Structures are given as structure tokens and as C-alpha cells.
């Protein structure tokens, strides 16, 4: 299927690894020019090299910086001739007990996982509407649908973003001008972040990281962890011309782990 987005420009945040990288690769495969960002310059350049080699017909620009800061966002936006597609993504805040979290910890979580994405939408959606095409995809978490007790910082910040998007996406001046805004809610994907979680949790559980990973894998009905590439392919479809009637939605991609009907 031709997704109809070849030649568009996408800004993909936190794209050097994991789910952001999967999204960037999938969009590049559809002929989309990219500005990709991440804090680590070395990993970012390595990813850019991989994408250029796989999709030689597109332009890939890199911006090393922290997308959760005003300076990082300004640099990323300046590198993109126009943002037709915005993929908001940032690392989640650390787990813990809410009794230990300071105001500073809460503000950092909000800056990364709520306010930062909102600022990037503020900077781009009106231009999308003027041009008659725009796609925003926010990478949030399955925890928005089924909160995880020790991820309270993430639960709070990402749920705030979800509520904001529910209103913004339905504004006729955006939805009526072919600008869609949707959230992708990943479950357990085979990323560095998941592996780090297993390493940290294994000590408390008295298991090896591999044993803990096996336990977690068996809790997923699909009996496996997700592949960032398949997450990226869903992202690319949500950004397609065919998905123009899809907006304001929270799309779970978790191998069936969420047990509810709705």
C-alpha cells in the first residue's frame, strides 16, 4: 500500500533508539524526509547512517539535543523546512514511590511527557492546517489505559497529555483541515529501556534479568515482546493519507496484554 506521504517532512523525537527509531525508519521507508533528534549524538548519527543507507532517496537531518527543553525544541524545529508529521517521544520518568517524589521530579516528568509535546504541537499544528495536511503521533504508554502503581510520574504526566489531546484533536479548525492527532500506547517492546527495567527489577526479585524477562514475556498473550519495527509501521499508517478520518484516538499496541473490553 502506498501511504501517500512520500516527500513530506517529519520531525521524530528521541529517534536514535527504540520506538522513535522504529518510527523514523518506517517513515523513511515511505519516502518521508526526516529531522531526527536525541540527546546522544553518537547513537543519533549511527541511526541516521542506517536510515540513509536503507532509504537513499530521502533527506535525513540530525539535531543532537534535549527535546524536553525549549532550546532543544527550537533547534529541532529550525532544522525542519516544514513539519508535516510530528512524532512526539521522550524517555519516561523513573519508577518509585510517590512519597519520595519532590515537586522538581513532578515538573521534570511534566516537561518531558506532557508540556514538551504540547509545545511542539503548538508550534506546528496551525501551519499544518494552513497547508491542509498534518499528522501528529504522540508516543505515550499502555499505562495510560491501565496505570502501573510504581510508574506514578509517568501515569500522571502522560494522562495529562492524553486529556489535552482529546480536546485539541477535535477542534474543527484542525480536524476539518486534515490535521489528525493520535496517541500510540505501547506495551512491552524489546528496547533498551525494557532491558534496563529487567536489570533493575531482577535484583529485587532475586532473579536474573533473563529469568525476569521470561516471566514478563509469558504474561503477554502474544507470548513475546513487541518489535520496534512493527510499532514504527503502525505509526507510519497513522500518518498516512488513508488515516485522515482517524483522530483523537488512543491506540494500544501491547500484544493483547490489556485485559479490558474498552
Helix segment tally = 9
Q: Outline, from the CA principal axes?
A: globular
Name the structural class.
alpha/beta
State the share of residues found in helices, binned by percent.
Answer: 40-55%
- Total beta-strand segments: 7
Distance between the termini: 29 Å
Main sheet strand line-up: 3-2-1-4-5-6-7
Mean pLDDT: 95
What is the H-and-E element order? EHEHEHEHEHHEHHHE
Rg to the nearest angstrom?
A: 18 Å
Task: Describe the main β-sheet briefly.
Answer: 7 strands, parallel
Stretches where pLDDT falls below 50 for ≥5 residues? none
Q: Roughly what fraction of the amino acids lie in strands?
A: 5-15%
Describe the structure.
- The protein is an alpha/beta fold and 262 residues long.
- It has helices spanning 18-29, 41-54, 70-78, 103-131, 152-168, 172-175, 192-205, 209-218, 228-238; strands at 9-12, 33-38, 60-64, 85-88, 134-139, 179-186, 250-253.
- Strands 3-2-1-4-5-6-7 form a 7-stranded parallel sheet, sandwiched between helices.
- α1 crosses α9 and α4 runs parallel beside α5.
- The longest helix is centred in the middle third of the chain and has 29 residues, at 103-131.
- It is globular, with a radius of gyration of 18 Å.
- The chain starts with 8 loop residues before the first strand and ends in a 9-residue tail after the last strand.
- The mean pLDDT is 95.
Amino acid at each position: 500500500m502506498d501511504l501517500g506521504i512520500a516527500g513530506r517532512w517529519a520531525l521524530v523525537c528521541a529517534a536514535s533508539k527504540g520506538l522513535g527509531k522504529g518510527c523514523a525508519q518506517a517513515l523513511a521507508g515511505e519516502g518521508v524526509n526526516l529531522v531526527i533528534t536525541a540527546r546522544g549524538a553518537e547513537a543519533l548519527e549511527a541511526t541516521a547512517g542506517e536510515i540513509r543507507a536503507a532509504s537513499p532517496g530521502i533527506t535525513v537531518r540530525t539535531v543532537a539535543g534535549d527535546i524536553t527543553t525549549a532550546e532543544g525544541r527550537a533547534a529541532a524545529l529550525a532544522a525542519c523546512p516544514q513539519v508535516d508529521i510530528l512524532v512526539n517521544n521522550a524517555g519516561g520518568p523513573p519508577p518509585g514511590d510517590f512519597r519520595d517524589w519532590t515537586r522538581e521530579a513532578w515538573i521534570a516528568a511534566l516537561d518531558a511527557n506532557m508540556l514538551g509535546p504540547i509545545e511542539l504541537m503548538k508550534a506546528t499544528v496551525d501551519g499544518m492546517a494552513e497547508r491542509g495536511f498534518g499528522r501528529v503521533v504522540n508516543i505515550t504508554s499502555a499505562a495510560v489505559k491501565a496505570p502501573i502503581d510504581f510508574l506514578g510520574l509517568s501515569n500522571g504526566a502522560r494522562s495529562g497529555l492524553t486529556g489535552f489531546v482529546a480536546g485539541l484533536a477535535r477542534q474543527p479548525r484542525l480536524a476539518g483541515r486534515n490535521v489528525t492527532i493520535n496517541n500510540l500506547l505501547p506495551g512491552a517492546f524489546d528496547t533498551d529501556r525494557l532491558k534496563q527495567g529487567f536489570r533493575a527489577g531482577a535484583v529485587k526479585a532475586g532473579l536474573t534479568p533473563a529469568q525476569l524477562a521470561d516471566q514478563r514475556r509469558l504474561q503477554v498473550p502474544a507470548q513475546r515482546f513487541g518489535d520496534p519495527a512493527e510499532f514504527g509501521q503502525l505509526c507510519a499508517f497513522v500518518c498516512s493519507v488513508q488515516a485522515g478520518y482517524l483522530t483523537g484516538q488512543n491506540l494500544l499496541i501491547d500484544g493483547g496484554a490489556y485485559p479490558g473490553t474498552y
